Amino acid sequence: MRIFLIEDDQMIxxxxxxxxxxxxxxxxxxxxxxxxxxxxQAQQYDLVLLDLGLPKKDGFDVLRSIRExxxxxxxxxxxxRDSLDDRLRGLDSGADDYLVKPFEMAExxxxxxxVIRRKGGIAAPLMxxxxxxxxxxxHEANFExxxxxxxxxxxxxxxxLLIRPGAILSRTDLEDRIYGWNQEVESNAVEFLIHSIRxxxxxxxxxxxRGVGWMVSKGN
Length: 220
Known about the structure:
Helices cover 41% and strands 20% of the residues. The protein has 8 helices and 11 strands. Helix 2 (33-42) runs parallel beside helix 3 (59-68), helix 6 crosses helix 7 and helix 6 packs across helix 8 (189-201). The longest helix is centred in the middle third of the chain and has 15 residues, at 105-119. The relative contact order is 0.12.
């Protein structure tokens, strides 16, 4: 899953980016509001984490511009502004959630999972196509009565496929969901992860479409 972090504070940004990377999120980090809007027009993301106190363009202006462009991307405001008026303004301007600093990363991750579920029209905490089930909270996968815990990158890859069951994702598509800017990607990284997942769950868990990419079935 690829996350876009918009945060001007170096220390906070480093901490959030590091925690996201440790959890195998691909994360790109921008410090200025106007630069963030330009990046959103050029790059696809699964979720935005938006600070409000930004230079060049205030976070509220960034949020308004995103929604005025009819961009439905899931977005969580992360800010030190804790007044009721600011919280109401953020939510009424189109934020999907509003989290006041300081916060625990575990809570941020839980809120991210909840927002992604709501945007995908999923009420249950588990991701499933009917055959394969993935628990984002524990990184456990279940397929044909085999239940295993996945590594962080194995989870990130399988999650990318399970978000769009039946869709074929190429190597580039998967790399974009697993790695952020300036992260070195080995040429066979995706194949290695798929081999590892299949070894744990069975070859049928992920289907290969020769010369095109990989997919998980739509299920039942």
